[in-house]
User: What shape does this take?
Amino acid sequence: MEIEDKKEIDQINSFIQSYQPQVIGLSANSHQYFYAIEIAKKIKSQFDIPVFLGGVHSTIRPEEAVEEDSFDGICVGEAEDSLLELVNRIEQKKDYTDINNFWFKRKDQVIKNNIAPLLIDLDQLPFPDYSIFKYFKEADGGEISPRFIFSRGCPFNCTYCCNHVFKKIYSGQGQYLRFMSVDRAVEQIRDFKKEYNFKHFKIDDDTFSLNKDWVLEFCDKYSKEFDMSFECNVRIGAVDEETLIAFKKAGCNLIKVGLETGNQDLRKEVLGRSISDQEVVELFNLAKKVGIKTFSFNMIGIPGETKETIQETINLNAKIKPDFMQVTAFYPYPETLLGQMCIEQGLITKGHIDCYMDESVLELPDLSSSQIKKEVRNFTYNVYKQYDRKKAAKEKMRQIKGFIISTPFLYKISRPIYRLIKKI
Assistant: This one.
């Protein structure tokens, strides 16, 4: 796999030449991993700088990542303390091959260092420096919507998620689910508000509503200081009316909820989510009652999926009428329970894909990858057409526009027609 965008590589090289770093760290999930390899190779071809890989992929597949010659080492797990020790030793020109959480390949030997205990007190961590990202560099007043994470870990074991893999890696190394203090969370919002003066933000914790006492304290303290809206992720069964009322009073205007599939058996037996349709309906009705908008997450093409189960997912969304929807094709991430099951059953027929938004790598007994792609693309329209013709028509126009833009010939001939219509 090759990176075709020479402009981006030139930008990386230009930055390295101007900044003159002594260490380069790359972070990658499984979709990004192959590009991380290419970037590291291109950096190595131009500069004599050690390059290290961290992130989800090197954590769940360290044996694979450490074999890549383009990396001088890889990090397994959380890296704040270990990475700091690494750069300090490099600066001091000391050996660093015994640092916890890091693996190194030296000739034919792989050095596997121990996993360090988890950092329990998240208040010790400095605030992230968002200024290094283009989105924040170009921020203008309240136009940005920063994302915050106030906890680490998840107690659930959804089969398609990597959390159960992380919990095995960190077994015996401390409490996996951790929260920063409410005061520290509010302080972080305050700090970023001074810097960027935003008007809305997103809370990206896997399940923000999980710790009810924490959430109620947060809503109380936040509402006394700020008058900004925010959105967050909640899990069905882990949020009640009292919490939603507190959300509303604090300024929460949107909750995002994982439905994944409208078939209860697939949800429980395949995805590991023991959530009934009734619980789904009750939460969405409760949110509407309180006055908070809703967002549903949906997946198409999980093992066991059929046209009938897809229709069940469409029907459930039509019943709860979320204000927003996201639908993606299921992707079998390596080392996850569901990912390994797909490998064992021979369902994976394609190699790497850049994006799981509509592409599937699976061929299911009752659905081909092309059928899955079609169902994903038509999902939102098929939901809206059951209860809102205007939204359905708007979605169909969006699909047509996207098709034209993605087809070079059609896009080329459509441009002058569009300009002509605007003049009229």
